[in-house]
Amino acid sequence: MSISGDIPPWPCSDPENGRIRLRRFTDLDAAMAMDLSQDPYVPTVGSLPPHATQEEAVAWIERQRQRHIKGNGFSFSIADLETDRSMGNIGLWIRELDTGRAQVGYAVAPNERGHRIASDALCALTAFAWTIPHLHRLELYIEPWNAASIRTAERAGYEREGLLRSHQEIAGERCDMFLYAAVRESTVR
Predict the structure, then answer these.
(1) What angle do CA 183, 186, 188 make, to 5 degrees?
(2) Beta strand 137-142 with 101-108: parallel, antiparallel or unpaired?
(3) Nearest CA among 84, 69, 109 for reference residue 23
(4) What residue spans define the domains of the chain?
(5) How many CB atoms are closer than 10 A to CB 5?
(6) pTM score > 0.85 for this model?
(7) Could you tell me which CATH number the domain at 16-187 has?
């Protein structure tokens, strides 16, 4: 997974940007997970069940905590800087770290949308990602209909590189995806 065979360490301090910080999940984040599970799309692209109960939300949170322990990457709760209330989640997936690449994914709870929370979180995650020495490229996959996510990626400095036709299956259908990426500036030639 990483050049040394070990997952990069959890950040010493929570990454911050704007009004948010990225922190470890706690069981208190279950309310956010339950809100997020109300979105008809989010459960189709992850492990959060639709209309999650308290118990299902806590189980999902535990899976998020295990991502780093198991070496898959970093799953952060997007928390309000002042109140610490969770508003969503964002992840950095490092399966391809040996090649210098990682993938990013994010979701903001429906009751929190429209306040640039995702773009602040993406900026914070990107800054953290560049502290990982062998990481040179971050990739996002966004469905063409998802205008809000496209704005988020562009606000955070990601550039559209192309359309990946029939890229992945979501809810039983093959879906096109835009590929957005950010590259570490010092590595571009």
Answers:
(1) 55
(2) parallel
(3) 84
(4) 16-187
(5) 8
(6) yes
(7) 3.40.630.30
